[in-house]
Design a protein that fits this description.
Helices cover about 40% and strands about 20% of the residues. The protein is an alpha/beta fold and about 350 residues long. The strands form 2 sheets. The chain has a 10-stranded mixed sheet, sandwiched between helices. β1, α1 and β2 form a beta-alpha-beta unit. It is globular and about 55 Å long. The structure holds 3-isopropylmalic acid and manganese (II) ion. The site of manganese (II) ion (MN) has 3 residues, from α9.
């Protein structure tokens, strides 16, 4: 009998509401498969900061290390704490647990409307593999000569061979696996080596080295500015896209629009070796102005639980969650405001739970 303990960090804003739906789905698969599964919730976030002057307990990583996986709701509430401070919670976990892959599947489910005309359930099925521990997010730099007319800031990107290699290799492995079902098997290198003459030239060279080991996977390249256009113009072209930390961040918000909006987009922060727990989250923010109204779409959070199950090796549970999401979305009966309906967050969660169990 598998035995899972899952840490839940609801975070700020609407985090509590969507974390309840995530836990509801964990409970549903627990009931269906008889897993011994426990969830433990932590109150780190902006309110914690206002009370204790820090976003999270000093021993957060030690505490979380013992869990099998983490669900993170959403962090940040600029009315309470500056974003660059509050988001240390998320970035500390990503880096501290060497979650070097940020995996963002982009799928448009039938019944979901999108503003993008080229997007249809047939044309939208891709995955963005985002490097998640270094690059533009290395956090190195400083402010200099502040208060003088010569003031300046430095923010240094770091691209290590190991960091580029492992992200790109992950993307090729994924494309090889996906080839069996989608038949495509292609990794698009999202780059900007025409202007970033050190970091991205280096990144490209690692991409080329890795590609040689995967003759069965097609190569493809797109500059990051151009890819934003291609993703709208020809989204069906893409299979797996590999991108550095910042580029991956930017293009996945755009890609979320192809799947119906941020209400549907989930991400996994993965430590593939399993040396540390991986963390799953909806990629929408904390939307403080909607907090407490039960209006946000819980599908992104439910989808992140699907990814968690897949990561834990519970393929049947993952499959059942996806099937339930598809059933609920296709029926169009229970829809939050972003889907044109007027049902509440928990009503959508209930419908998915129902579809998993019955
Ligand atoms: C994301 C978010 C984060 C990021 C922010 C909140 C720091 O936008 O997960 O995409 O930039 O990675
Ligand atoms: Mn983002």
């Amino acid at each position: 009998m598998p035995d899972y303990s899952i840490a839940v960090i609801p975070g700020d804003g609407v985090g509590g509401e969507i974390a309840s739906e995530a836990v509801k789905i964990l409970d549903a698969v627990k009931e269906k498969y008889g897993f011994a599964l426990e969830t433990v919730s932590f109150d780190w976030g902006c309110d914690y900061y206002l009370k204790y002057g820090t976003m999270m307990a000093d021993d957060m990583l030690d505490t979380l290390k013992g869990f099998d996986a983490i669900f993170l709701g959403c962090v940040g509430d600029a009315s309470k704490v500056s974003d660059h401070i509050s988001l240390s919670l998320l970035l500390t976990i990503r880096k501290g647990f060497d979650q070097y892959i940020n995996l963002r599947p982009i799928k448009l489910y039938p019944g979901v409307t999108t503003l993008i005309e080229t997007a249809s359930p047939e044309s939208i099925d891709m995955v963005v593999v985002r490097e998640n521990t270094e690059g533009e997010y290395a956090g190195l730099g400083g402010f200099f000569k502040l208060g003088s007319p010569d003031a300046f800031a430095l923010q240094t990107a770091v691209f290590t061979e190991k960091g580029c290699y492992r992200a790109i290799r992950y993307a090729f492995e994924l494309a090889r696996t996906r080839k069996k079902s989608s038949g495509k098997g292609m990794v698009t290198n999202c780059t900007k080596s025409n202007a970033l003459n050190y970091s991205m030239v280096f990144w490209d060279s690692v991409y080329q080295k890795v590609a040689k080991h995967y003759p069965d996977v097609k190569t493809d390249v797109a500059l990051v500015d151009a890819i934003t256009m291609w993703l709208i113009k020809n989204p069906e072209h893409f299979d797996v896209i590999v991108a550095s930390n910042l580029f991956g961040d930017i293009i996945t918000d755009l890609a979320a629009m192809l799947q119906g909006g941020l209400g549907f987009a989930a991400g996994g922060n993965i430590n593939p070796e399993g040396d540390y727990p991986s963390m799953f989250e909806p990629i929408h923010g904390s939307a403080p102005r909607y907090a407490g109204k039960a209006v946000v779409n819980p599908i992104a959070s439910i989808e992140s639980i699907r990814m968690m199950m897949e990561h834990l090796g519970e393929q049947q549970a993952a499959h059942d969650i996806e099937k339930a999401i598809i059933t609920v979305l296709a029926s169009g009966e229970v829809r939050t405001i972003d889907m044109g309906g007027n049902q509440k967050t928990h009503e959508v969660g209930d419908a998915v739970r129902q579809a998993i169990l019955y």
